[in-house]
């Protein structure tokens, strides 16, 4: 018996293929976001010289496509494992972690860009287009 399959059963085989598609979509979204940010992309919470609020590409629909893409990668991976508990745990824990990181990042962006960022923030959802 493997983890997560004893009490609720495994995910159906189609869920594994859905996981592959979600993972690939997440990789593509993350890459698109990084490519759109170009020289403004950093791995740490900071702004760079002459940075502006980027509102093109995936940033038209969501403020954090890189985090959304990463979350999709991990959800896709968990689906690929075929385990309901793994999928639920990964989704819950990583969503909480990314929301925490986004909150810290947005404080920095508001301090750096002021109303340019708060206006963008008012028009654009965080992670899920038209929803959140």
UniProtKB/TrEMBL annotation:
Residues annotated as transmembrane: 14-33, 71-100
| Family annotation (Pfam families) | PEMT (PF04191)
Q: Name one GO cellular component term.
A: endomembrane system
Localization, per the record, is:
Endomembrane system
Q: Which PANTHER family does the annotation name?
A: BLL3993 PROTEIN
Q: Which residues form the signal peptide?
A: none
The name this protein goes by in its record: Isoprenylcysteine carboxylmethyltransferase family protein
**Mode of membrane association:** Multi-pass membrane protein
Native source organism of the sequence? Streptomyces alanosinicus
Coiled coil regions in record: none
The record's listing under InterPro entries reads: Metal_cation-efflux_comp (IPR052527), Phopholipid_MeTrfase (IPR007318)
